[in-house]
Amino acid sequence: MTRPKALIAWSSGKDSAWALHEVRRAGEYDVVGALTTVTETFARVSMHGVREDILRAQHEAIGLPSAIVPIPYPCPNEIYEVRMAAALTDAKAAGVTHVIFGDLFLEDVRAYREEKLAGTGITPLFPLWRKPTDALARQMIDEGVETYLVCVDPRQLARDFAGRRFDHSLLDELPAGVDPCGEKGEFHSCVVAGPMFSRRIDVAVGETVERDGFVYADLTQSSS
Which run of H or of E encompasses 25? Predict the structure, then answer.
């Protein structure tokens, strides 16, 4: 029996990576590509600030072709929606019927995705929906996910968390009210290893900069 074709909405972070892992483990869908928005001005993953060369290394390590959607900086929402709609039209023409998201519990985000996909013939999937985020975060770590905080919202979390590895020590230090998975925008991450990867991506943590009210830690691929 032919399995339905799906794209993973790949943010470069741990939640989308784990959503891919869960879907593959269940075996109900054939994941055929990784859909990512990249800010063309900087050649970096939108919001996360991850360099495009690391993104492409991630896609190679998860064994999926890149479905990159370039967007400008700054990017008005109408331009974002037009370019995403074009990417989804192409995906539909290629036989894709589902898109997998790593969303955890934000009802407004889920509703937005469902609204934008309504009538397209593509169905959103939310394999991590409503999983307790503390247990989920610790499960990711225990099962070998290696990820680093690459973007921090300093209004919610101290800037020195940027660049740190997402591990049990970091979870223990998170202030009360900060979601363990950063679902409320407290932080964003970049995965470099885990059970969804065929190989580890060697990275070095570089400089930390502040842009548009967020603190970014720059990861670069290292040769070690």
Answer: helix 14-26
